[in-house]
């Protein structure tokens, strides 16, 4: 992957990094969704990451998201698990930023590499073999990136609102699923270290009982169960995030007239 450009940031880019980083900090103060296992939570700032990448580009977006998450983690209350998730939003912004660029070495191919690496990493974990079909949503994101290729960027920059919506939706979904898989891999790596295995087992039993009351019996007692049991919930949740990011992102794109606020060229 190409190294980060060495060009200096201009005043507008520094201001935008500060604004979006501050937005992340503010949004993380809002109610969030607890992560199974008792450590960490899903912040509503997930909605901002794709927008940050689209507006600022891959590298400036990466910096803004990382800085915002770092500051948000420093402000109490914080957890050990939380610091491990700081790069997740930055990766998401990098993916959407790469896809949205018309003239850059970091285009849809860079996003493809990141998503493919994250999806492949799932099968490098023991849990990945217990739940081999879990990344179906993530592979769908990878397929969309490959299918649209440079057209996602063309649509975002189009004068047609419908095309802008479609391009923003593809970029947002890819970014949100990148964030999601990064979080999954960190969660798996933290089992028994910063996440209580007892709490995870209790969560699996609880979810298993819920499914059994619905007449479904997918419960085997493995860690992989916790992913397959919450897959329908994750699907709805991530689609809602994608819709929210697309709506807000399109509004911002149309409002600023796409003033070429992205990363400096290498």
Topology:
Blueprint: H1 11-27, E1 33-34, E2 41-42, H2 48-56, H3 58-74, H4 80-84, H5 86-100, H6 108-122, H7 126-130, H8 136-148, H9 151-156, H10 161-190, H11 197-213, H12 223-256
Put simply, the count of helices is: 12
Major sheet summary line: 2 strands, antiparallel
Which residue ranges are poorly predicted, with pLDDT under 50 across at least 5 consecutive positions? Answer: 259-266
User: Strand tally, please?
Assistant: 2
Quote the beta fraction. Answer: under 5%
- What is the CA-CA span between the terminal residues? 13 Å
| Residue share in helix | 55-70%
| SSE class | mainly alpha
Large-scale geometry: globular
- With strands numbered from the N-terminus, the spatial order across the biggest sheet is 1-2
Rounded to an integer in angstroms, the radius of gyration calculated over CA atoms is 19 Å
* H/E series: HEEHHHHHHHHHHH
Task: Report on this structure.
The protein has 266 residues and is mainly alpha-helical. The chain has one domain. The chain contains 12 helices and 2 strands; from the N terminus they run αββααααααααααα. A two-stranded antiparallel ribbon has the order 1-2. Helix 2 packs across helix 5. It is globular and about 50 Å long.
Short descriptors:
266 residues, mainly alpha, two-stranded antiparallel ribbon, 2 strands, globular
């Amino acid at each position: 992957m190409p190294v980060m450009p060495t060009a200096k940031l201009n005043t507008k880019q520094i201001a935008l990094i500060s604004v979006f980083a501050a937005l992340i900090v503010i949004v993380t103060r809002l109610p969030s969704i607890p992560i199974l296992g008792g450590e960490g939570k899903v912040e509503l700032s997930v909605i901002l990451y794709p927008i940050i990448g689209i507006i600022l580009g891959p590298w400036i977006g990466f910096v803004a998201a990382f800085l915002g998450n770092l500051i948000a983690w420093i402000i109490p209350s914080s957890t050990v698990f939380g610091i491990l998730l700081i790069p997740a939003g930055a990766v998401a912004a990098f993916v959407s930023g790469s896809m949205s660029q018309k003239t850059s070495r970091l285009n849809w191919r860079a996003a493809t590499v990141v998503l493919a690496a994250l999806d492949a990493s799932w099968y490098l974990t023991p849990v990945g073999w217990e739940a081999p079909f879990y990344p179906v949503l993530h592979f769908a994101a990878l397929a969309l990136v490959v299918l649209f290729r440079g057209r996602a960027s063309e649509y975002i920059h189009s004068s047609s609102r419908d095309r802008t919506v479609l391009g923003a939706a593809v970029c947002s979904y890819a970014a949100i699923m990148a964030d999601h898989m990064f979080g999954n891999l960190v969660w798996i790596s933290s089992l028994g270290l910063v996440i209580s295995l007892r709490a995870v087992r209790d969560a699996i039993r609880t979810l298993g009982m819920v499914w059994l009351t619905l007449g479904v019996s997918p419960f085997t007692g493995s860690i992989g169960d916790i992913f397959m049991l919450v897959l329908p919930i994750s699907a709805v949740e991530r689609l809602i995030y994608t819709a929210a990011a697309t709506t807000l992102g399109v509004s911002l794109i149309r409002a600023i007239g796409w003033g070429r606020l992205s990363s400096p060229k290498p």
